[in-house]
Fold each of these.
Amino acid sequence: MTSIGTGYDLSNSVFSPDGRNFQVEYATKAVENGGTAIGLRCKDGVVLAVEKLIQSKLLVPGSNKRIATVDRHVGIACAGLIPDARHFVSRARNEASSWRKGYYGPIPISSLADRMGQYAQTYTLFSSVRPFGVTSIIGGLDEEGGPSLWMVEPSGVTWGYFGAATGRGRQAAKAELEKLDLPNITVEEGVKHAARIILIAHGDNSGKDKDYELEMTWVRMPPNGEAEIAADGTVRGYGRHEEVPKDIVEQAEKDAKKAVEGDDDDEKMAES
Amino acid sequence: MSFLATPSYPQQNVPGGEPTQRHGFNPYADNGGSIIGIAGDDFLIMAGDTRHTAGYNINSRTERKVYRLGEESSLVLATVGFGADAKWLADTMKRAVDVCFPRLSMMKDFKFQHNLKDMTVSAAAQFLFTILYGNRFFPKYAYCILGGLDKNGKARLFSYDPVGSYSKEGERRAAAGAASSLIVPFLDNQVEFKNQYVPGTQGMTERPVEYLPLEKVEMLVKDAFTSATERHIEVGDGLQMVIVSAQHGVREEIIELKRD
Amino acid sequence: MNHLPEAWGRPRDDIYGAYDHQYVSASNPNQHTTSPVVTGTSVVALKYNGGVVIAADNLASYGSLARFTNVERLKQVGSHTVVGASGDVSDMQFLFDEQLEQLIISEEYQNDGHHLRAKHIYSYLSRVMYHRRSKFNPLWNVLLVAGWDDGKPFLASTDLLGTTFSGPALASGFGAHLAIPLLRRVCPDEAAVANITREQAISVIEECMKVLFYRDARSMNKYSMSIISGEGDKVEIEHRKDIQLKQQSWKFAESIRGYGAQVV
């Protein structure tokens, strides 16, 4: 933060002499303080998961969702400033809805991600606005691209991923995601990994003294959906974004705890 | 100046030319049925049949025309005419009087604004006028009868035409709808004692008007509707009666009418 | 197309005479739908002791021309409801594919386990219909809303004027004349619903579709049927598509002049 006091960080859209937009970088900092959010692109769908830190015991369990349904086949998981995320999601819903009106069908995930990226980017251009303090992971399953996962950052950067992570535990989460054979696992396996990765990410950062709630959704083909299996084994068709059933999440959490604590035991044994 | 000589819209029925016939959209319909309201001293009965028609078709045999405007309120509204407008009026009045809807509408909720007090009958009556007259140039095609008890427990009754005119003093009886021309003279005679004279006065002294007891009024309402059912094809199926009494609260009753 | 763009899309002057430019003048009054164009005929529906059966044929007529023969006029809306539409097909598509689709998608944003039930859909539709008639721009349809609501079968109607009513047996269009008497014979009132089984209801509706095909010149012999059945809070909707009319008998036609063999 050597730039503080130089004056180039006071207004949005102003470059510093070495070519940086500090307001965007500060927005990224805001994201890094939020609970971890991850996304897994599996071969038959997408899994989204967030580590929702319990801010107060007075909150109703399950309230204040951080993964939103944007259209039947799309979900967005967010890390960062929640109000910014709510606005971002609302914009995504409008995009999806107007696509339906104009083109008479569901929006492809790539188009939605592209539009949302452009939207985020416009908030880096004017001194009258500030960038979104949010990084969002957009996941969905469509007919053209099959399962797809995108991450939109405050700068407007929008990249497609097999596995995406943001928020305070992103480093640990990324390390874990890299170990997976993501293109070839199923959504069911993805759910188990997601629960484990969120647990690891939680334990790895400064928020670990706080309790967290695991919020998890998936996008996969509904039982009566018209699916097609592409040459690379991925599913094509319009999926459905839903919460992962409670019993499956609970089981995944239990397994995750066992696996992670098991690791600790191994380490202890190795130490002794 | 030639542009002033001819209107800029297509002319219809040009003299000497072929008359043009345009198939327009008629936003109104007549859904039949009749309603009655009779006020006693400390009670009133509002009644309507439950037949809903479109021409010779019976759409439904169980559509109610009499609405209570609040669960705790004594206010009752009966509407007849074009069913969609009638229902809109009832919904609008309910929303204005009761607390059952959140304050989403432009119209502020009366009960919230006035310390949870019910609207008085005369206030509701004036309010209904405002709504009806507010639609003066695209009228709500429904005839309304509004009734309730005032703060002294006396029955008040008001009846309206579709653009809102009503008598602020209220009245003792009212009828509207398809069979009103059959029912009104009957009520004139039986409630207002029209054409009744004191026996032995050689038709010189009119019988003085007096409040009728509840049982008698209930009988009159039933008689009015069974008779109207006999003679009018749009009346029948069921008779819905809402009885509002200062002593016994509000009671609703549905009895059968002929379904032919 | 010639070299005069202003003449494109207008009747040729040499055949129809000079074009009356008043028709494209911007100061003309706005014109809205004042009559339907491509239309669907009756929808029939009947409650039974565990749900509702609703049916509509697959024809869309252009006047007396049987224009499209594979049109679906029943739509499932959410998990509890089926809506059937007669009247203008483009207005139906606007309601089904744009309005109702968006209604359900927005409802699912909350993801709170609450779903719009039949009476909510019905209330929404009747308000839309009344609103549009009040703007003098009606949606030229009669809609039947069938569903499972609050542990009971639900059936109600709304039309281009926003008129609303409900009953144990409803039919729109020609069905209001031909099917209603047949339906009311087995189901004269709400109380009778308790004695009608699912199979009975289906066969009565099948009978109605047959009678309508016999006598309604804007009907066809292929139709869809939805059976909404419920138990407590659970709802199940079965869609039967491309049902062919069975056991038709055209014997009666023999004796009708112009129908059968009899020519004089």
Note: Residues 22-271 of chain A form a domain with the Glutamine Phosphoribosylpyrophosphate, subunit 1, domain 1 fold (CATH 3.60.20.10).
Amino acid sequence: MNSLLIPGGKAPAPPYETTRETTRKSLDEPMKTNGEQSTVLTLSQVGKSFGNLRVLKGIELQVQRSEVVCLIGPSGSGKSTLLRSMAFLEEYDEGEIRIEGQLLGWQDTDKGRRRAPQSQINQVRRNVGMVFQQFNLWPHMTALGNVCEALRRVRKFSADEAKKRGMAMLEKVGLGHKAEAYPAQLSGGQQQRVAIARALAMEPHIMLFDEPTSALDPELVGEVLQVMKTLAKEGMTMVVVTHEMGFAAQVADSVIFLDQGEIVARGTPRQIFHNAEQPRLQQFLQNYLDRNAFWQDAKP
Amino acid sequence: MTFDASIFTDHLGDIGSGFLVTLGTWSSGVVLGLALGMLIAVAQVFGNNLVRAPLRVFIELIRSTPFLVQLFLVYYGGPSFGISLDPIPAGILGLGVYGGVYFAEIFRTGFQSVARGQLEAADCLGITRLQCVWRIQVPQMLVMILPALVNMVTVLCKETAVLSIITIPELTMVLTGIGSETFAFVETLLMLCIGYLILVELCSRLGMLLETRVGRFMSRQPR
């Protein structure tokens, strides 16, 4: 095995751990099953075009409760567009996306497909939490204000209830002491953790992460990944677009490789990272290996 | 001819009331203009083309004609269209509409200055567009457009001088009146300048105070 990554010579250990064969068994806790395994998110034949460019083609995907799915692929492969479609931030124009059985974004009328009213869209994605590459915190509100805003305006919590829940969420991401700080006073990693707390406060059934660590300085990546690992351990259903192959290898239940708008490969981390068969995937992983195994070639 | 300060002490009452009329029409015009400007901007940002196109025409029309002419039209031309207004309401309406289109343009750029991602985040959390405007866009854009707003408010202060042509007894009318009565033009015109200077200066001071207050969250230092 592994021969594809190592063109001759002795195999260096991959810089990431890929010992987990399947699912949650090797994370510290067993996953919450809640009786039968239910499907949180279903994509069937999802397609999307920007003008003449088809950026997503016939995407089929199911995400089960408590499953962690990582989307990897080169830039421009459509993985962010796919993730954003799951929150209807992009209007996909073919196929269906269903969240817990409900069709997202569209409604079928006798005159064909129409955009659903905003209230219906909000109803369907009520249980979807989104985390962005650029955090997208509201800079004029404190960390606590950011977390409480939707609780107050959307869930109609009283000020006290919202504050209590908000503080609990900030504690959860380790930022209880920064509740009164404005985003500009926080590091990138802290800002992203506040953004995660903000999404968590709404008690989502599924969390979507759009390259959550790509805008961070390398030494701040760890704290955000740590929070995400904890979430995965607690049984949160997650779809993560990421360039952090280590995270994908250690935490994902399944890894999906996208290229040019298509799912080229999918499987367990071991299948994807050790036994890649598709040339495009092999090439993609080789780039990572080249970059991350630099210490193998360190000068004496 | 020597500078004669007694002109002012003799007419202190008139000058005082003129000052108050200027202050009153100016502030009412600003309030009306801000409200109108916000309405126009919101309609432009969120409306469809059916709403946008006529507003665009209206804005261009107001911006490309002199305030003096607009005011004449409202006050003297109004009755031909069945709108008869007293001088002061006509003046306030004129100022409000004139200022409103400029405020609308300032607000519009303000709306565009808030990053799209922040709105996406709000959208994902189920926050409605209207809540987004008032809770997220307006507070942030006010910080950014405050200098431009203050600037426009001071412009309107000086435009109140034009109201004298529709017989509103504001500062300019009162002081030029005293000037032609007493032939003390230098004194009265100087006094007029000082009057506007005081108003504009107060306004910019207030603006600067506001700028430091509302912009606090941008600072990297903890409060």
Note: Chain B has a mean pLDDT of 88.
